[in-house]
Amino acid sequence: MSEECGYSPGFKRPSEIMRMRRKRTRSEAFSKPSGDAEQSASSSACVRPFSPGPLFSNTRSRSGGVKRRNPFASIENRHSPRKKLFVYNDDDEGAGGRKPQRRTTRDDLAFSQLMDKVENRNDNRKGSSPSEDDSLFEESEEDVKTPLQKSPQGISPLSIAPPVCTEYPADWSLKTRLLFTSSLSLSWSEQPKAQEEALGLSQHCRAQFNTLPHNLQDPKSCTALRCAFQQSLIYWQHPSLSWVPLFPRINAERRFAGKNAPWAQDAELRRGLMSEWSASLSSLYSLLKARLCPYFYVCAYQFTVLFRAVGLGGSSSINALVSPTTRGLREAMQTEGIEFSLPLVEEERTASKSREQQIVCGEERQQKDSSEHGCCSDDPDGDDNDEDRGSSLSWLEEIGVQDKIKKPDSISIQLREEGRAVSVDHKPESVVCVEGPHTFTLVNFLINCKSVVAAAGTQAGLPPTLLAPVAFRGAAMHSLKARCVNVKSQVGSTYQNISSMEITGPVLPSSLHAITTLLRLAQKGNFSAVLYTHAPTAILNTHGTTCASGSADLSAFGLHPASIQQLQQPSSLGKTALAQITMNNYSYTWKK
């Protein structure tokens, strides 16, 4: 075994060899004089490090130990700070491909000079003082600072500020819940003082809006901010029954189950409720026509109606949207003389007609091309094609069965059209738009229509819910419920304190905008919100065909001027509604 090739009887483990080598180096450093130390350093300079790379330099530390290099480094990437730039020269392109060439710029020269100085400083760090190292690094920064600022290539794409979006699109759908989160505390919005709550109610009734400071150091101590927040939570509702939740009404039978409903058996009570409800609806429409109320909602158990004043939603007249509808409801409206349109159905028809026209134009072009080619061809049957097409069904008369074939009559055509009309029932495409003076006829139709009130079920005999941002006859003032919670959210490997605020209730479009405006100031332009939409009202973002002239006076609506300016614009959401809003550095982003 001792004579075999590659076998060493004195084999030791690498760890023991390196341990003995370090021990020998330390002992030589303390025992030998300076001359012998230099000689030993020169003799051990040929020791290769633990990783691929050049040999150790002659530079030693004061203790005489050898610096251990990274075992995972490679020869190719050991000078990674110096990145080489290549360009391809088309003139040198040959059979083997393109030839890379070195491109030297002012930035490269400055960067290489900086790295040379940093490497020299690392080599001489042990022998130099801290003051010398700092002066060297400051000098290198000054050398490279000027060319990077002057060169356009030195500008990073991240340094270009993104466009600031100060507003999100108007959303006319009703929200059932809002969840706001922010890294800053939201505790300023809860537990208002009695004076702050009273002042917020007074400002809402008088339509007064205070100017808040742009830089709020302590939102919790700002009385004006807390009053404005209480003011933004207020809405008006009719009827008001404390033991019955009157929103939402569509698909809400479980919410009414088990509730005491004395009007279901008492006819006199039902008549009284309907009489008060009719007076409240008439009052709302009068306010809307006088431009004292911007909008209001009629929430029935089968559909929802949104009435908007002149100038809102991009319309130049009073308009109303009804969704979802059925064929029976649309026929009843036509019987009462209400003219309406189906915006989404008309858009689909217009799109289908344009596609058909494109197909017909393409076929005509093909026929024209084929006719031009046919004039040059020797086809003896080319002139008799039209006669053959006209007599293609003549064989039915020859065998005597032309009378047995059923032809489409007026009844089948009518049934087919009715089937198309019924196919959009209870769908977003069934939304109905009423404009101009026909909205007054629609109000009378809702007052007199018996199908507006359920005849059976848990909602039997209960009038629809009226919601508005301003006071009207018979309305009760309500406030949205706000609750704050502090939670910890995991961000990477650490936990970050997150403050959240939950708002529940029928959130109107103006209330949503007022709340986000206050959070923008209080949270220093950084917060996010998750919006829970009442699904049947998402289609109310559809706008009519008319455009606002811009001459209407909307100052008496009782809303904040910023909210009015937002609601004036036509909604760009289409069939959908906002699901998430995020503000980062005073810039909005949103998701549908």
What percent of the residues sit in helical stretches (DSSP H or I)?
A: 25-40%
Count of helix runs: 16
Mean pLDDT value: 76
* Count of extended strands: 15
Taking all Cα atoms into account, the compactness measure Rg is 40 Å
The dominant shape is: extended
Strand order of the largest sheet: 8-7-6-5-9-4-10
Strand portion, in percent?
15-25%
Q: Number of folding domains?
A: 4
Uncertain runs are 37-51, 55-63, 79-104, 128-159, 375-391
Biggest sheet record: 7 strands, antiparallel
Structural class: alpha+beta
Describe it:
This protein is of the alpha+beta class. The chain has 4 domains: 11-78, no CATH class; 86-158, no CATH class; 175-192 and 201-215 and 481-591, no CATH class; 238-256 and 263-343 and 427-477, no CATH class. The protein has 16 helices and 15 strands. It has helices spanning 14-31, 34-43, 106-123, 130-150, 194-206, 223-232, 253-256, 267-289, 327-335, 343-376, 385-390, 394-399, 410-422, 438-448, 509-522, 561-568, and strands spanning 86-94, 97-102, 175-182, 234-238, 295-299, 304-308, 319-323, 432-435, 465-468, 476-479, 481-491, 494-507, 526-533, 580-584, 587-591. The strands form 3 sheets. A 7-stranded antiparallel β-sheet has the order 8-7-6-5-9-4-10. Strands 11-12-3-13-14-15 form a 6-stranded antiparallel β-sheet, with helices on one face. Strands 1-2 form a two-stranded antiparallel ribbon. The protein is extended, with a radius of gyration of 40 Å. The model is unreliable at 37-51, 55-63, 79-104, 128-159 and 375-391 (pLDDT under 50).
